[in-house]
Every structure is written in C-alpha cells, then in structure tokens.
Amino acid sequence: MPWKFGQAINIGKRSEQQDRIGIFHAKDGKRHLMVVADGMGGIPKGDQAAQIVVDTAEQAFKKNKIRNPELFLEEICTQSHERINQLETDLSLAPGTTCVFLYIDKLQAYWAHIGDSRLYHYRQGLLINQTLDHSLMQLMIDQGAIEENSKEAKSLQNQLYKRLGGPKKPEPDIHANTLKNGDLFLLCSDGLWQFIEKDQIPAILQDHPLDQDGAEHLVTIALQNGGRHCDNISVTLAQWEKTQTNLIQKMRNFFKKN
Question: Considering only Cβ atoms within 10 Å of each terminal Cβ, which end of the chain, N or C, has fewer?
C-alpha cells in the first residue's frame, strides 16, 4: 500500500516559530506516524513544549511494538505532558502546546488531538472526518449559541480548555477509520486552517500534488490570506496513492482484442 507524503512549516508574521511537525515511517513501509504540535503563546517555552511532543512521538514509534494504537496515542500524550511539566516547578507556569497525531497501520488509520490543531480526512474529494477544537468557540458553536464564522466566534477561537502541559491531566479525543484507496489526510496548526477553506483543499492539491509543492502551496495561500495577522503555519499531508488497476485491466483487454 504505497503512501505519498508532504510537509511544510513557516514562521508567518510572528517573531518566533513555535510550531513543530514530524513524519515517521516504519522500516517495512506499512506503518506511519504524523505529528503537528503548536506551542502556545503568552507563556515562555512554548516552542520547547511542541518539540517535546514530536520527540516523544518519534521515540515511542521507534521503540514500541504497537498492539493497541489508541493506547499508543494516549500514552504519547501522557508522556509528553509529563515531560513538558518538568520544564517548570510550578505547574501553573508550565508551557503548553496543542497536538494532533495520525497513525497509519495497513488498512486502518487512528488519530488523536488536544487543543485546536486539526486533522481533515478526505475521500473522493469530500471531507468525511475532522477533529473538533477544544476551544470555547467550538463549545459555543456546538451549543448553538454562536455561528461558526461570526465575530463572536473569532473572539473565542484562541481560548482553549485542553492542552498538553499544566496542572490538568491530558484527555485526547481519539478516533479510527478503515482506509480506502485515495484517502487523503491533512494535519495542521491554526495558522493554516484559519485562512484556507477546508472544502477547497482537495482541488488545490489536484493542481499541486502533495508530494511535490502541495504543502508549500497551501502555506503560501495561508500567508496571502492571513496578511499581517498570520500565525505560525504548519501542515503535514498523506495520501494513499491510487492504484492503476483499472488502467492495467483496460490495457489487457485492448491487447486481447488485437
């Protein structure tokens, strides 16, 4: 099952890069782990917190025989949280970070997230799964109190009630799905999803393949749309490459007739 991957990261209009990304592959080529972490601003060492997430994920992926993928992702969150908290003696001052993971094992995909870094899962050009932000904005939208694109929503967007780091125990949302040929996944920080319409992404990647300039092109669009307000931007992409079965069958039929 061949996969193709892409990734890009950009500082945006910020003075410091606090996003971190990673894509890791098993030697047999059948298992893959993708990570995006967005260190939270306003508290020092957000970049260190995000780097801890990526490092912890890579170490766990390389060391463990993963028999329970959901538990594997949960343990990455727990271990990252504990390591982040070691950066400060006072947990109320501990740095924080969001995170989103995608673990691919043959025909199954598993993902987990905390905060407002997102995963989008597309099939045949349509969005079929996405993570829901752990933000006051998403809570109010779910309750029907505000509209998604309203001014009220934007004012609540960066107020998160879940993160890695700090006194609260991490509680990731974890999901799984059986894969189909052509499935596309995008993981990103809020610097990307704020400034690109999610339903437009498959069409953009048709013209800019994700294993060529696709990720960089998405970042360019976010930079243009975000202008001077653009945050750090990070994105990782994965797609199960479409097989050539139909083409091969047509060729066989052609030569049989001739």
Answer: C
The residue with tokens 């967005």 is 38
Residue 135's closest CA among 155, 118, 152, 159?
A: 159
What are 107-159's pLDDT values in tens digits?
999 999 999 999 999 999 999 999 999 988 888 888 888 877 777 777 777 88
In this structure, which amino acid lies at residue 153?
A
N-terminal to C-terminal alpha carbon distance within the chain: 32
- The torsion angles phi and psi of 7, rounded to 5 degrees, stand at -160, 155
Alpha helices in 129-244 (DSSP H): 136-142, 151-156, 190-193, 201-207, 215-226
Dihedral angle sign, alpha carbons of residues 245, 111, 160, 17: negative
Whether the predicted model's global pTM rises above the 0.85 cut: yes
Residues 87-100: pLDDT tens digits?
A: 999 998 999 999 99
Which residues are paired to 138 by β-bridges? Answer: none
Beta carbons of 242 and 124 less than 8 angstroms apart: no
In terms of Cα–Cα distance, which of 182, 181, 162, 183 is closest to 173? 162
Angle, to 10 degrees, between the axis of helix 69-85 and the axis of helix 46-63? 140
Which residues lie across from 174 on neighbouring strands?
Answer: 112
How many angstroms separate the CA atoms of 219 and 237, rounded? 12
